[in-house]
Structures are given as C-alpha cells and as structure tokens.
Sequence to fold (140 residues):
Amino acid sequence: MIVKTHQFSDIIIPDNEIEISAIRSQGSGGQNVNKVSSAIHLRFDIKASTLPEFFKQRLLALSDKRISKEGVIIIKAQQYRTQEKNRSDAVQRLADIITSVTLVPKVRRATRPGKGARKRRLDDKAKRSKTKALRGKIVD
Fold:
C-alpha cells in the first residue's frame, strides 16, 4: 500500500503488515446476512511496522478510539455490500489516519497588533461609548 503524503515522499507499507479478515456484517441484510462475510476487519500494528519512528510516535500519541492501548489500529468496514468495496474502504481509512500524522503543523509565533490596529480599536470604543451615552435618560 502506498500512502500519499504532502510534505514527505510517499510512504510504502508492505501488505504483510496489514492483517485483513472478513467477518459477518451487522445490521439488516436480508437473506444473505447469515451466509456472507462482507465486512472487513483491518488490523495494523504501529510498533511492528516499517514506518519511520517519527510517524510511529505521532500515531501512538493520537487520541483516536480506533488505536488500541497496545498500539494497534483496528478498522471495521461494513458500509458496502461487497467485500471488495469494504476492503478498499478500510485500506483508504488506514491511509487517511497515517496521512493525518504526516502533516506537521506550522509553529505559531506570537505577534502584537500594529499601531494602526490599536488606534482603530480605541476609536471604535470611543464611538461606541458616545452612542451608548446618548441612549441614557434625558435629564431636564
């Protein structure tokens, strides 16, 4: 499996690191519900994978319910009626999780408002103050 990334070169995950098994899907399914195993259960062990250490640490730090305490990503795909579509959906969802940790957020640098912005803010406050002062009771 090849995961497309934005900032890094594409990440290749060997197929032997992804464990895919077919299980029976939940919910309604008519006559086939008890015969066909169309849902897919995908397991990907983060710690045993060939991903770079940086990505492993970021994946393990995610607060995602699909990542177990042992560091295994578990995805259950049962949206479609066919096993092939559910398999490709599960693999795509795994790729989306891995892609999400490849995006390194920009470091925010603290800045102060400029001189013009401070002046405009104070002018707006003065204008608002005058408007509200005119709303008061009229004293004769």
